[in-house]
């Protein structure tokens, strides 16, 4: 049986009100997604589905840990995941993704599968730079040293302006005289 079938929600018989669902995603979920970004993990998803005449609002709260490989040391580590995201599914006459948060679905749709949304939200919550926690303090220290601002007095700026004017091409100086008249 396909492990992603557990993420199907039958919407055809739902009344226009609020429903709550809980999903547990483990390593089999990430393997079934057929991707290379996340190989293993254990994540709990609490989904609030609000159905109305014109749309379905999906509010996801995803908490857990996913296994990542450090870009620097290639060591595996657990990256915490804690994200809240919203997805709107509007009823229409065809299927179309309008934006990252809004999709059109056909009115005749009987079932929606939320596995893709859960995986996308987990992926988006992960840092782009995958660093083992033992390297993060070092990386923060490097950022602090590179981020220092050097302040100069006003006299140095006046000297720089004089140097800039002396370095102006004489052709531009002639044109500047014309514009000053």
From TrEMBL:
InterPro entries for this protein: YceD
Bias (Acidic residues) ranges: 156-166
Region (Disordered): 135-167
Protein name according to UniProt: DUF177 domain-containing protein
UniProt organism field: Spirosoma arboris
Lineage, top ranks: Bacteria, Pseudomonadati, Bacteroidota, Cytophagia, Cytophagales
